[in-house]
Design brief:
Elements (H helix, E strand, L loop, with lengths): L13 E3 L7 H6 L4 E6 L1 H5 L2 H9 L4 E6 L7 H13 L4 E6 L1 H13 L6 H5 L11 E5 L11 E6 L4 E6 L7 E4 L9 H20 L5 H23 L6 H18 L3 H13 L3 H20 L1 H10 L3 H11 L14 H10 L1 H4 L7 H13 L1
Parallel strand pairs: 1-8, 2-3, 2-4, 4-5, 5-8
Antiparallel strand pairs: 6-7
């Protein structure tokens, strides 16, 4: 196994402490006086914005932009870019879940781009961005704060996929466990299962290295040992471990890629309007069975890490979190297109077992059978 990936891309600075987010605008001021803060609906309701504003709002001219909800789309990005350009933003910050973070990251990455977002979504070359991106996640799941990837959906074609560039990496990551407090159990479960999936897939990915394995295994251990406590009570001290584990999973996937679960979750999520973490949770047991032999000794290591058989413990988590498949019993809409998009994804290409058209067809039948 290789020691390191061919290129290491990591956040240059990470702050991990309770209430660290109150210093966000002070940190932003280092990069300029004018910026845009992208956030979700709960950010204002929780009072978090008021705490931040009281600490450093006088140092910067901030335009706030609230994500309307749902999975992030190219249209939302176009609106955000237009407002950020009109504001003459010198930096972009994101405080929220994965959708908020991906939109803020894409906005910073494409603020000075000359072509519309759809061009880059379709594969156009991306130039280096000079606009700083700062981030504070409010969920423990996507790991997007630690990656150079933006995952967006083209609402016109219903295609959900990613684009990326090394310059998209956040200049500053603020990990404030207090931002998880008050999260609904469903959000904890879905986002946490996404992070759990990322830890598994990055560990067994064909792009895995000794370096990424250290993050993957530690993430797996921290997520598994904390998620139930936070699901039952989001104010639990275990939220620190869950947030840290999610971050480590993000670092791992950023440097190793993922697998068939994420290859399937993107087209399924886009067509059925299913939250990404829920789609991952439903697909994960089928992927574990599919990849079992290809995982080799790593399957045993993961099972030992969590203190039980990986497949059985994954199913037990899904039951404990009352996760129900939104696909069971439904018709497979545009199966040929789903198969095509899955096989075209970089995640499926990194799966430990080579994935064929027949394999995807089989997995879809299993997923939709329930």
């Amino acid at each position: 196994m290789k020691m390191f990936p061919n290129e290491l891309v990591l956040p240059p600075r990470t702050i991990f402490r309770k209430r660290a987010v109150v210093d966000l605008f002070k940190e932003c001021a280092v990069f300029g006086k004018r910026g845009v803060l992208v956030h979700g609906r709960s950010f204002l309701a929780s009072g978090a914005f008021q705490n931040i504003a009281e600490t450093g709002m006088s140092d910067v001219a901030v335009k706030t932009w609230q994500h309307p909800g749902g999975e992030p789309t190219l249209h939302q990005l176009e609106v955000l870019l237009s407002e950020a350009r009109a504001h003459h933003a010198e930096w972009i910050a994101g405080v929220g879940g994965g959708s908020v973070i991906d939109l803020a990251k894409a906005c910073a990455g494409l603020l000075e781009a000359t072509r519309p977002p759809v061009a880059y979504h379709d594969g156009a070359a991306i130039s280096t961005s000079k606009i700083p991106f700062l981030v504070a996640p409010t969920t423990a799941g996507t790991g997007s704060e630690a990656t150079v990837v933006c995952v967006l959906t083209n609402s016109e074609t219903n295609v959900k996929k990613s684009f990326r560039h090394p310059s998209f990496m956040a200049r500053l990551v603020i990990l404030d466990p207090e931002l998880l407090a008050g999260s609904p159990p469903e959000v904890i479960a879905h986002s946490g299962m996404d992070a759990f999936t990322q830890a598994i897939e990055s560990y067994v990915s064909t792009g895995a290295t000794w370096f990424s394995d250290q993050f993957s295994l530690k993430a797996l251990s921290m997520i598994f040992s904390s998620i139930r406590a936070v699901f039952e009570n989001s104010y639990s001290d275990k939220k620190d471990d869950l947030l840290a584990g999610s971050y480590l999973a993000g670092l791992a996937l950023s440097n190793a890629r993922l697998g068939i679960v994420h290859g399937l979750a993107h087209p399924l999520g886009a067509r059925y309007h299913v939250p990404h973490g829920l789609a991952c949770a439903v697909c994960l047991p089928h992927a574990i069975k599919f990849n079992h032999d290809a995982m080799g000794v790593k399957y045993t290591i993961m099972s030992e890490t969590i203190g039980g058989d990986l497949f059985l413990e994954t199913n037990r988590m899904i039951e404990d979190f009352n996760i129900r498949s939104p696909f069971a019993g439904q018709s497979i809409l545009g199966e040929d297109r789903i198969i095509e998009e899955t096989l075209a994804s970089g995640s499926a290409a990194a799966n430990p077992r080579k994935v064929t058209e027949t394999d995807v067809e089989y997995l879809l039948k299993q997923i939709f059978a329930g």
